[in-house]
Amino acid sequence: MSSFDAVSARYAEALYALAQKAGALESVLGDVERLTAEIASPKVRAYLFNPRFAAEQRIKILDPLLGGMHQLTQNLVRLLFDRNRDGVLLSLGDALRAKQLTERGAVDGVVESARPLSGEQLDELKTGLRARMGKEVLLDNRIVPDLVGGIRVIVGSSMIDYSVKGRLAGLRDRMNRAPLSAAARA
């Protein structure tokens, strides 16, 4: 699960629509994936987003990579640098993935557990979440030893907490909010 801003979402929407119309969606999605991997490099990122260098200088570092990409991808990257929106490149991959998932009626999610879940357990959980949410949920299993047992599922801004730690915290909160009888106060 990732986050991105509204500006990145708008650029991703536009790129997705243009690529789909041109019949180049798979190619453009692959381009953005490669671009995202390249930008993940600390050296590339340090130079590419350094405002001390002119945009023309900074984009040159991407020229070898852009040369093999679809024209739509090349045009977008150049447009972002021309409009001083190069920061959109940092979250473009996430925004495009979100758009792609929305188009297919799916959403990313994370299931946290104290130990790794089996494929069968994940499939069962996905089936239950699909029935509950009305869409396919793609789950990533994250190990969180502090949970002790049970699971915690996070999808978008929703969290379902069936962990031992979560249940104990809920019990503690209910006990703290419970009114005390007169006999208990004495």
Short account of what is shown:
The chain is an alpha+beta fold and 186 residues long. The protein has helices at 6-22, 25-39, 42-48, 55-60, 63-66, 71-82, 89-103, 119-133, 164-177, 182-185, and strands spanning 106-113, 136-143, 150-155, 158-163.
Question: Topology of this protein?
Answer:
Blueprint: H1 6-22, H2 25-39, H3 42-48, H4 55-60, H5 63-66, H6 71-82, H7 89-103, E1 106-113, H8 119-133, E2 136-143, E3 150-155, E4 158-163, H9 164-177, H10 182-185
Parallel strand pairs: 1-2
Antiparallel strand pairs: 1-3, 3-4
Organism: Engelhardtia mirabilis
GO molecular function, one term: proton-transporting ATP synthase activity, rotational mechanism
InterPro entries: ATP_synth_OSCP/delta_N_sf (IPR026015), ATPase_OSCP/dsu (IPR000711)
Explain the overall architecture.
The protein has 186 residues and is an alpha+beta fold. It has two domains: 6-102, N-terminal domain of the delta subunit of the F1F0-ATP synthase (Peroxidase, domain 1); 105-177. Helix content is 59%, strand content 15%. It has ten helices and four strands; from the N terminus they run H-H-H-H-H-H-H-E-H-E-E-E-H-H. The protein has helices at 6-22, 25-39, 42-48, 55-60, 63-66, 71-82, 89-103, 119-133, 164-177, 182-185; strands at residues 106-113, 136-143, 150-155, 158-163. A four-stranded mixed beta sheet has the order 2-1-3-4. Helix 1 runs antiparallel to helix 2, helix 1 (6-22) packs across helix 7 (89-103) and helix 2 (25-39) runs antiparallel to helix 7. The model has no long low-confidence stretch (mean pLDDT 89).
